[in-house]
Design brief:
- This protein is mainly α.
- It is built from 15 helices and 3 strands.
- It has a 3-stranded parallel sheet, sandwiched between helices.
- Helix 1 links the parallel strand 1 and strand 2.
- The protein is globular and about 60 Å long.
Length: 316
């Protein structure tokens, strides 16, 4: 594709199937005419090592998923002449699809609507650019991802699958820290280091420490999940209080969203947020979340396909 068209910049998905983004970048850099082509890594991995790996393989910069659109815009304009190649776009300037000022204040508040035991929500909000809606979504994703992980941990320990445990604790360490669950993050960090040592050498002392620390970790994890279950219950209460017929509004929003996706317009995310305030949320929350993830990964084609399926389900 890159040989068929002229590009000012490449957004490279690091976790592409068949050929990963790091390998693709190395191949592109072998040709002299692409030596100066800006290539930006897009990845779910956010550690300093991942950032360094992107740069070492020839990329110019590194963006973490889910993509923050303002950061994406600033990154693009840093690497190319935005006035010549990008439509004029002010991320902070409202348009016909943008949320109201009142909604924006809600999304970017320093106050969290519910107390979450174990979570420093001030840290969590800061990590998510003070966007309450985004923070809540990531909390829910964490809950869904690790609700049943206890058996996985115990089974992997029994099988001495330290490689799997090491990767799992590494992921939870980063996720918990970004959500403000510092105690869980620190326990995960200890287990990450311990399983790494056991990968290299299995000895009695480390094995006994693993036996001691895993129950502490699981207890803290279950406590965190209990807190997040309260958040989910509160959300269900909020959505169940409104039973008005909003079918026409839903059709209008889906039509707007479809047009924005066809135009590869980042404002599509604001329409998803509006749909989440309608009755669609009650039956199709998972579908909305999936479409939103595709939008934030700048995969508008997949988002459009999923929207078509959702529209058909709503009409049934």
């Amino acid at each position: 594709m890159i040989k068929q068209h002229s590009y000012d910049l490449v957004l490279m998905d690091v976790q592409m199937p068949i050929m990963d983004g790091l390998t693709a970048t190395q191949i592109i850099r072998k040709e002299i005419k692409y030596k100066q082509l800006p290539i930006i890594a897009m990845t779910a991995h956010a550690s300093p090592d991942d950032y360094k790996r992107s740069l070492d393989n020839g990329m110019n910069d590194h963006l973490n998923k889910p993509i923050d659109h303002q950061l994406l815009y600033r990154t693009i304009t840093r690497w190319i002449d935005a006035s010549a190649t990008i439509n004029s776009f002010d991320p902070d300037e409202p348009d016909e699809y943008s949320i109201s000022n009142e909604q924006a204040k809600t999304e970017q508040s320093d106050d969290f609507p519910i107390a979450l035991s174990g979570f420093d929500t001030a840290i969590g909000l800061k990590q998510h650019n003070h966007k309450t809606d985004l923070y809540i979504r990531m909390l829910n994703l964490f809950y869904d991802e690790y609700l049943n992980v206890e058996q996985d941990i115990l089974q992997s320990k029994k099988q001495r699958d330290f490689d799997h445990l090491h990767r799992l604790f590494h992921t939870i360490k980063s996720s918990a820290a970004s959500l403000g669950e510092i105690t869980l993050s620190r326990l995960a960090e200890q287990l990450e280091k311990l399983t790494n040592e056991l990968l290299n050498h299995i000895d009695k002392e480390n094995s006994e420490m693993l036996e001691q620390q895993i129950p502490l970790f699981i207890a803290q994890l279950n406590s965190s999940l209990t807190s997040l279950s309260v958040l989910k219950k509160e959300q269900k209460k909020t959505h169940s209080t409104s039973k008005i017929d909003d079918s026409q509004l839903i059709k209008k929003l889906i039509s707007q969203l479809n047009q924005l996706l066809d135009d590869d317009n980042a404002a599509a995310e604001s329409i998803i947020n509006k749909l989440r305030t309608t009755s669609v949320m009650d039956r199709h929350n998972d579908a909305l979340e999936s479409i939103l993830m595709e939008i934030q990964d700048v995969n508008y084609s997949n988002a459009s396909k999923q929207l078509t399926i959702l529209a058909q389900q709503i009409d049934e």
